[in-house]
Amino acid sequence: MKPKIIGILASPSLTGGSAQLLYAALKSAQSQNVSTELIHLYSKEIKPCIGCITDGEPNCKFPCIFEDYGKEILIKINDSDGIIFATPVYWYNVSSMLKVLLERMTSLEHMIVFGQQSYLEGKVVAAIAVGADSGVMSTISYILTTLNSMGAIIPPWSMAYSHKAKQSLYDDKALMDAINVGLLVAKTVKMFKQNEISELRYENNFEYLKEIRNFVEKYIQTLQEKTPQYYFSFDFAE
Predict the structure, then answer these.
(1) Are 11 and 87 in contact, with CB atoms under 8 Å apart?
(2) Separation of first and last alpha carbons in the chain
(3) Residues ≥6 apart with Cβ < 8 Å to 139
(4) What's 114's DSSP letter?
(5) pLDDT band at 35 (very low <50, low <70, confident <90, very high)
(6) CA distances to 10, 210, 236, 237 from 225, in Å
(7) DSSP 131
């Protein structure tokens, strides 16, 4: 079965700048013999997260409690190997629909509470943003930081952005970056699948934690005893 990459369009416009760059990224990814699918967040209702992760009982789990388009998307995310997010910039951040989806994706990550790994662990992600100001970078950073915190993999050069709105397709640098996003996500997905890398999260081994803490404490003590004080040796074999 081919690796699966989904493109999540978080814009109300199917022809706007973020859509244009996402289409380019998905087309580029297809050159690597992967299957692709476009998901348009504004096409159906996605109910907002109600924070059941804070309940006394652990109720936040995949595929979430709502029967809506959000649940359909969460299932597609779970079945995918890579995800490319594309959003316009609304007040220096993602669109409201993408914010809702990211919050609902907590149900995928929260499976660690139920003795499993995060369902986003090992999935490869990238981000595309289009906006008229510097908010593109804060928007991309927010997406990638959130997904990395959920366990996803971020390849190098995993971002593309443009300030040219509906003319983004004619922004040569942005278009090339979007093409590279598609290529890099696809290549990274294939690399990880070929090596069958899974369960990347380090388990809560408190004995190992103590061992590392003791090592660092002793190493710092050794550094403090050295003269002059500004001399630091980084030979961990000492």
Answers:
(1) yes
(2) 50
(3) 87, 89, 92, 93, 94, 127, 129, 131
(4) G
(5) very high
(6) 56, 23, 16, 17
(7) -
